[in-house]
Amino acid sequence: MAAFVDPKLLHGKTVLITGASGGIGFVTARELARRGAHLVLVCRDAGRAETSRAAILQAMPGARVDVQLCDLSLVANVRDLAAEVGRRYDKLDVLVNNAGVMPGPLTITREGHELSWVTNHLAVFALTNLLLPQLDAAGQARVVTVASDGHWLGEIEPSQVLRNDPEKYSAFAAYCDSKLANILFTNELAHRLDLTGITANCLHPGIVDTGLVAPGRTGLLKMAWSLGKPFMISPERGAQTSIFLASAPEVAHISGRYFKHSKPARLLSGRAQNRAEASRLWQISAQETGIG
Question: Has the keyword Cell inner membrane been applied to this entry (predicted)?
């Protein structure tokens, strides 16, 4: 028997989800629509965005589903997105930072950032900070960020020069660095918002069978991904903790925690619990984005 879903749980709530055109982002969006949310889907590709919107409306006729197109690999685009959201919505009840990439060869954007660092972390840092006025206007709001157990292999480099060194670059290591950053950012954000009505939590969705590693990828990472594919979980299962953190009444006042399987979990790295490291990351992120 399917679990009961309260179609009024998020009635009157506006929820913005990045990376909502596929994988756990799409499932999260669809299930929050079932709970009555007014969705704002942030997607990079217009065609995939419209397909996702149509699928949600087919599952939930009458749902309110808006689309904002944005390539999160450029901070300038994130600024434009936040400005447009600010113009269109008086408040934002839930922000789900879901979008993520694991690139192949070292890719430096025209703004000078490594692709996974800017997409997985700097965009999260910038968008969340820029949308704080809308989140604060909701009275009680939530920031949910998709991190990963891969954080235990991550490090926070002190400069872009070191992070962008072609001789030392590893796509997997870069991804792990960004996931550690997600957790440190969440911890510092929760600390800074302690006296507000905004909570901030992050999560490990599990090893999910999505398009994170591109089909055309070659090398050891592609091989490892292929070997592990039979043991991966579906996006339906992988989205459950995001859905829980975005909607469950029992976590309305919990902040600064890392979740797995919809429960608080132990962090795998001491670095992820280091307040000094979280503060240092905030300073680095503010310098690299010009925000915060």
Answer: no
